[in-house]
Amino acid sequence: MFAMNRKPYTFGRFRVSLLLSLLLSLSAPIRGETVNIAVAANFLSTAQQLVQAFSQSNSHNILISSGSSGKLFIQIKHGAPFHLFLSADTDRPKRLIEEGIALDDLKIYATGQLALWSKHYPGIEQGLEALDKNHVTRLAIANPKTAPYGAAAIEVLASREPAYDGVIVQGDNIAQTYQFAASGNVDAAFVALSQIKKLPQGYYWQVPHEIHTPLHQGAVILKAAQDNLTANAFYDFLSSHTAQQIIRQSGYLTF
Predict the structure, then answer these.
(1) Terminal-residue alpha carbon distance, the chain
(2) pTM, whole model, 2 decimals?
(3) Key word Metal-binding present in the record (predicted)?
(4) CATH number of the domain encompassing residue 128
């Protein structure tokens, strides 16, 4: 009788073991896949915070490359091995979708805010009126051809009457533009609010949204990453409450 009862007991134990294995596999964190993310320069520090928050529940290797949206766009078109593209605009992600390089799933993950910042000149808080050559001899903006924040700065300057008659210096991207002002090479700069919001020094004027094209920032999954579970999980994470809270605290608007 003992021999006859042994098989059902073993089979039952096997079923329990199999069920536990399945449950553990479903709840286990995603691990092992490397994800390369191309991130617009204005969003670099925020992206680093998001990766850190994402890492608390997922074991992975996420690498961030930062630059102007325009230059990252060109790199992607030429085959750079990125999985996700977090641009400072929606135009370039849309073009990647149209050209079959990205999946047809555009996500607006943030709306940027433009600021006019000076390290030493309090008058900058008065806005465009403060842009006279007696106080702001040199003004920095990001390259409007490759950086959406630079294009927005040009729109803002065009709304000023009389026109600003000082020297305009162009940074390769918004990060370099900020460095020009932080180092004292220029008197003021149009930067992302996220770059200067928490600085202990300096003065800024937050540019009204009405005088420039909205800085809606779009993200896409590149086709090379359509089967990369970690890349897809991070893309979904951008819409989570945790991620959106981090993005808002960094100085962006969210939906």
Answers:
(1) 68
(2) 0.86
(3) yes
(4) 3.40.190.10
